[in-house]
Design brief:
A hairpin with a 6-residue loop joins strand 1 (16-29) and strand 2 (36-51). The protein has one helix spanning 57-69; strands at 16-29, 36-51, 55-56, 77-79, 93-97, 107-113, 126-129, 136-140, 152-157, 177-181, 188-190, 195-204. It is 6% helix and 39% strand. Strands 1, 2, 3, 4, 10, 11 and 12 form a seven-stranded antiparallel beta sheet that branches. A five-stranded antiparallel beta sheet has the order 5-6-9-8-7, with no helix packed on it. It is mostly beta strands and 206 residues long.
Length: 206
């Protein structure tokens, strides 16, 4: 029985991965003065475009089955940035959420880090919160330093999807979020020499 979210087939990994960060910003511009006004809507999310290397049939069928099993945009799967499996920051300690925090926040207060460490996480590192259908991927936007009690406040993208509880674990290695396909149509190509090509696009599921 197919149970979502799915995990990628074990091999091969993407040959090319394009990640996008999207914000929903409204802007108006005066035709007379050129003055601009902007409004930030709360919607912001990751999306990705995946290109797999040419594969022989035996290998490709696992990926084809994975895509078909998603049943278009119905199913979800785990995905992340395969080029960043470990943080560039020190990231020592046992990081946890510090205090209950509400959805839509652009920052996350944390605890459990090694105390008094500069660059406990660096801008560009990822963290992961939650499990299952609410497993979320976040990118750290500024360098963070832990204080003398092991607390650190992280600026993150995207905004918190859900409220989080005190002492919720934070993952810093091989971080992944929950995604769904951008289209209900799945395609794969088969060349005369039986080489398969598989490409797909997805965006965060929430």
């Amino acid at each position: 029985m197919v149970t979502y979210p799915l995990s990628y087939p074990t091999a091969p990994g993407p040959q090319k991965l394009v990640l996008s960060a999207t914000n929903t910003i409204g802007m108006s511009k005066s035709p007379f003065t050129g003055q601009q006004q902007t409004y930030q809507w709360p919607s912001e999310f990751f999306s990705l475009d995946v290109s797999l290397p040419p594969m022989l049939q035996a290998t490709a069928q696992a990926w084809v089955a994975f895509l078909v099993a998603l049943r278009g945009q119905l199913g979800t799967f785990y995905a992340g940035d395969s080029s960043v499996l470990e943080p560039a920051g020190v990231a020592t300690g046992t990081p946890l959420v510090s205090g209950a925090q509400t959805a839509m926040s652009t920052s996350l207060t944390t605890k459990g880090w090694t105390a008094g460490v500069s660059n406990i996480l660096l801008a560009g590192d990822y963290i992961q919160l939650g499990t299952g259908v609410q497993q979320r991927l976040y990118k750290v936007l500024t360098n963070a330093t832990s204080d003398g009690s092991g607390h650190a406040t992280l600026d993150i993208f995207p905004r918190l999807r859900e409220g989080v509880s005190d002492a919720q674990p934070i993952t810093t290695i091989n971080c992944m979020g929950t995604f769904r396909l951008s289209s209900n149509e799945r395609k794969w190509t088969v060349e005369e020499i039986q080489l398969y090509g598989v490409d797909f696009s997805a965006e965060e599921a929430f």
